[in-house]
Specification:
This protein is mainly alpha-helical. It is built from 16 helices and 2 strands.
Amino acid sequence: MGKKKSIRQPNTANRTPKRFNLLTESTINKIFIYILLILPLIYFASLLSGTKMMYGSDWLLAGYSTRKWVVECFKHYLSGPMWDGAAFCGLPFGNTYTFYYLLYLILPIHIAWTYIFVLAVAFAGLGIYLYLKELKLSIYSCFLGAITYMGSGAVLSMTYAGHDGKILATAFFPFILLTLHKAITRRKMIYFLFAGAIGGIAAINSHFQLIYYAVIVCIVYLIYHLICQRKENGLKGTARILSYVAYGLLMALGLMAIHYLPIFGTMGWGARGGERGYAFASSWSMPPAELLDLLTPHFSGLLNNYWGENYFKLHTEYLGILPLLLGLIGITQYKRDKYIRFFIWLGIVTIIFALGSYTPIYRMFYSILPGVKKFRAPSMIFYLTSFSISVLAALGYNYLQTHLGQRTED
């Protein structure tokens, strides 16, 4: 019998297609990054000059006037206000030392506000792009995942209500996960400190409830990695990583203390500081029928045509059919990749959480997870579902690219 020939399996994950042979992968990578940064400028182009103000329902009701008042306080007293007498019977006012107030001091408020959305969309795309590169996917797969996430309804449709805090949270999350992933895989304290710093800054500068969900996901991500790497790390390695985690948490809590310590004692009397029962905590749950909006954004209606079970709805969950199809391809590789397994379960759990009172499982979240009793609108977690679908779509496309490349070689 003759010697059996071995079949070499080429690594095509990062191979540049033949039509781009004139461009190096590094050049294409830079082009993709420039595109991710420029696309939001094109999308918001008509609003960047300041001749028009971007619409935002909540922004027009209270957002603009509040920011105008804070800026005037800074200009006259060189300090932000500590008390808001116009809210209810008076409430502590503590969100004056955020980075975007620097923009309000430099630019007219309505222009600076628009640029916050531009930056948030750009960084949402850039963050997931860099994270997917850390997973060793092809740059085309990374670009697809980035475009999917930054163009999803969970990100872009925050503009209509003027929810700058929410869109900033969707932009911070990929960078928190990116630095945490680097910390876990490289086992260096500096990355844990960076992860803690970004998390602390995000908790101060964006929607706290959305960042709370992000922190829970990052904790699960850490535990999942430690379980998968238990043999490689060993007991000493795991203990060392956990000690680095403690330093990262101290960094996050230290930054958050600047914002929250002055108002911590009175938070129980705030609008969202006390518990108001299960009905309040589960209000604005996502009706199960609205999952069909992932297939068509018009199923439950948009804005004035909304006919769903919530009182009104100012956003959409739609992110495109192609990412769903590619995500299904990624799911078929469930047994091959630990990241596919993680993001499948993240997508499932966040959907169940978003459905809120429509399933009995939310009672478990309500009873077990600290802080959930103080929140409302569990549907806000859906941005993590969009993130999961975007990652699965990138992994699905990467599998197709690799698989088809191997067949071409054969």
